[in-house]
Amino acid sequence: MASELPKVSVAVSDRILLHLLEHDDQADKYVVTNSVTRRGIAEACALHPPNVSRTMRTILRQGLVSEHSRTVKGESRRQKTWQLTDTGREEGEMRKEAMAKIPLLIRDRRGTLLELEAGQATDRLEADLSLLQVLMHAQHEGVLVFGDIRFGPIRRSEGGKPKQPGRLTLLAGAHATYHTAPPPPRDVHGRTAELERLHQWRIDRTPALVLSGIAGIGKSTLAAQWVKEMMEKEELLSVCWYPCQPWDRPLGVAVSVLHRLGIDENHDPYNLMDTLPMLPGASLDVDSW
User: Fold this and answer.
1) What is the pLDDT of residues 40-64, one digit of tens each?
2) Domains of the chain (ranges plus CATH)?
3) pLDDT given at position 37
4) Could you tell me if 171 and 249 are in contact, meaning their C-beta atoms sit under 8 angstroms apart?
């Protein structure tokens, strides 16, 4: 039975063409966002940057994209960017039409597991997702669930009518997407100095610490091992382990952390709710989850 379930696998070139099509409003502009740079394309398409460059060389030869050096908002240097050619737009539209028919699984408002076409998922989930975001979630996670906080505010009311300004409620009935413990880590050998630095960071009570390194070097394993050790030492330690994906929205991380801390509109001594990336006037009812 499991083998009959739809599995989504989107080719790298299809992801890039769809992404550039979704950002075609930036074509021929002097100043653009990082969404049309190598880094922005890699993040949106769940790719390593070298894979973006490799694929770009291929579709450049095919005449589907053109390459430009442009000013990127928030950056001091001009960067290499890409946009679709006329041929690329035609090809992108054809591939988009085909990708919109890819079958995938969602769990609707009632919790029913449904198989439908990718192009129908946004309406059924009542979420503001692009086709590429739908496909990436489906490819990496299997099932898209109604009310997932990473999808942003539900854009319709119960009756299907748009909510009035200032009356938007965040994801009524939604579930949080974080875990209260890290996944079981692989055996960690060495890394004594790194673990000690993590221990010292906690002792110093510095607000944040960033673990950085190339993909696969063991950042998540190191963090999981350290958190596991802390949880064994401190039974009441509260952990929020959020499995971020490149296409996640800031809202998902922010709401998960606040939810784990027990902060809502009735208990928010530092007015943290006001910092959430919500629409002006929107209300947030964490307890409605």
Assistant:
1) 999 888 888 899 999 999 999 999 9
2) 8-91 (1.10.10.10), 192-288 (no CATH)
3) 95
4) no
